[in-house]
Amino acid sequence: MAYKRIFGIVLDSVGTGAAPDADQFDDLGSDTLGHVGQAYEGKLALPNLQKLGISNLREQAIEGVPAVEQPLGYFGKMTEISAGKDSMDGHWEMMELPVEQPLNFFPNGFPEELLAKIADFSGRKIVGNRPASGTKIIEELGEHQMETGDLIIYTSGDSVLQIAAHEKIIPLDELYRICEYARSLVNGPEYTVGRVIARPYVGEDKDHFTRTSNRHDYALKPTGKTSLDYLQENGVKTIGIGKINDIFSGQGLDEVYHNESNMDGMDHVDHVMQQDFTGFCFVNLVDFDSMYGHRRNPMGFGQALMDFDQRLGTVLNQLQEDDLLMITADHGNDPGFKGTDHTREQVPLLVYSPSMQAPATLGTRTTFSDFGATIVANFGVKSNGLGTSFLDQLA
């Protein structure tokens, strides 16, 4: 059957075990869901994700979340083919635009010539310039930044250029303007960076600094058409919730909502579910990644999963017979693993509609693009054909 509305929810960084090529990323042994379950020692409670088959897709069930005999929906997992393990790579590939060429990474910091241009444009000096955890580098340099007005620039294991500043010292409009200029410098061909991220924070001293929800991602513009573009061009409504708008630079989206948090994002989902429309609502919930994955906080990660699971119950109750829900992730960020970077993992694929009669496994998809291919196929839209639709497997 064809569904009137499709809701695609991306649990940012909720991986389900090392990908086949994890060794190429030094990520062998990573398992976001598995290690969160271990940290909770059997007390992780995810009843709604459980009945959708979150553990059925794994070789070993998540501790505390055993597999169920008959999942409510279809279940499987997806393997990424993009060159990186960043949010941009994952989301673009879901929308049938894999990132084939590796973007630039800066394990030794950014070139001085690049920083000199940002300093000249902003009229501010630059400190940091190395891979770092955002919370740690703000704790280390935040007071200096408040005293001097310097920009804290740092990167990570991903293709990102991040600029942090205290909101009272550098107003948001100024920080955003600086980030927009930095974005213009790294669109290639010499330097091609996936995302420039504004990282504002507040607080009076290093013991109380907190990054705010005024973060803004300036992503590389899609290098080709995505599933979102094909849908929009064919009159199918497209809605983006969370950092979807940032990741796709606004392209292919008719309506967008900015999230303050995961729960705020779920409020937006509830709001959109009350609308009568035909189309696709694409949702990103980033707290798993930004608040707990990078900070290697498995307990906080698990609590965020349980909070989402409660809200998922409301979504399941609101779904109409001709609605389709698809839950997945864009990469891993194992809070029980070494370092502070994303981890190269396979991701869950949970698919449900109240109209389903005989749910079964979707197996392991060989590319995230199957996600987008299924969506465009549902609406009778032709795209670039990079993914394989599983729409005809949904009974």
TrEMBL record:
Claim: Transmembrane is one of the keywords in the record: no
Ligand binding (Mn(2+) 2): D289, H294, H342
One Pfam entry name: Metalloenzyme
Needed cofactors: Mn(2+)
EC number: 5.4.2.7
Catalytic activity: alpha-D-ribose 1-phosphate = D-ribose 5-phosphate; 2-deoxy-alpha-D-ribose 1-phosphate = 2-deoxy-D-ribose 5-phosphate
Keywords: Cytoplasm, Isomerase, Manganese, Metal-binding
InterPro entries in alphabetical order: Alkaline_phosphatase_core_sf, DeoB, Metalloenzyme, Phosphopentomutase_DeoB_cap_sf
Keyword Manganese assigned: yes
Cofactor binding, note field: Binds 2 manganese ions.
Cell compartments where the protein resides: Cytoplasm
SUPFAM superfamilies: Alkaline phosphatase-like, DeoB insert domain-like
Pathway: Carbohydrate degradation; 2-deoxy-D-ribose 1-phosphate degradation; D-glyceraldehyde 3-phosphate and acetaldehyde from 2-deoxy-alpha-D-ribose 1-phosphate: step 1/2
Coiled coil location: none
Binding locations of Mn(2+) 1: D12, D330, H331
HAMAP family registered for this protein in UniProt: Phosphopentomut
Family listed: Belongs to the phosphopentomutase family.
Cited PANTHER family: PHOSPHOPENTOMUTASE (PTHR21110)
Function: Isomerase that catalyzes the conversion of deoxy-ribose 1-phosphate (dRib-1-P) and ribose 1-phosphate (Rib-1-P) to deoxy-ribose 5-phosphate (dRib-5-P) and ribose 5-phosphate (Rib-5-P), respectively.
Protein's name according to its UniProt entry: Phosphopentomutase
Organism: Tetragenococcus solitarius
